Fold this sequence. Notes:
Largest sheet: none
Mean pLDDT: 85
Radius of gyration: 27 Å
Number of domains: 2
Order of helices and strands: HHHHHHHHHH
Amino acid sequence: MVLDKFFYSSDLIICSFIIALFTANALILLWLTNRPWAKIYLESFIGVSNGLYRSVMTVFAFTAAFLGASVWGAFNINSNSVNVERQAIAILADTVSSTPALNNEGLQPLLRNYVHSAIEDEWPILVNEQISQKTQVAFNQLRVRIIEVATNTKSSLVANMLIRAFEALDNARQVRINHRWHSIEPVRWYILFGVALLAQFAVVANHLDVARRPMALSLFIITTLIIIVVGLIAMSVNHYEGVVVISPEPFRKVLESL
């Protein structure tokens, strides 16, 4: 639930939290190296091999890569579902416009109304994993009218073409709205945050026997890299808000042709 609320928030909140978390940890570590009571304990880590430091960084890199691949893979699947529905809309529109028996049945305006509602009413609320009732009503109106036309038409061939075209659209829509659920894997995220914090400590432990400035510089560099990597992955979880989003542009293009 905590991660759900975190990823449902804005990019500003996500970035602010990540920057605050890792910056605060870095400052605390630097502060501890200057406290006499803590310095004695920390100096017991002098001599920690570079192999441990490299191992921690390798684990962080692999964890970030696996989580990033999962998040961006879900994004690509979602984006592809939008294109599949756009193609289904175009096929249904072509079926109606190229079949004389269907030209005057009022299907084109209903299809146009659905696409317009999907863009204007449904897209903005997909960020909260919701679907628009107005869009659903528009889609159901299209469904009812298509069934009526298919039932009353004299040509079974035309009826079958129309029903199949609509079924393809119906299936494509169901797939697209089912992909609105965010892909959040709590265990991987907790491991990623934990390993990132451990990496900061490893940097400090590996530089205890050098001057303070090189330690601070090394910690600054690794903290910056962690913030960038974790931030980019975190901002990609929500597919309908942020820097990288699923665009309704394919629907806008098909709407122009309706």
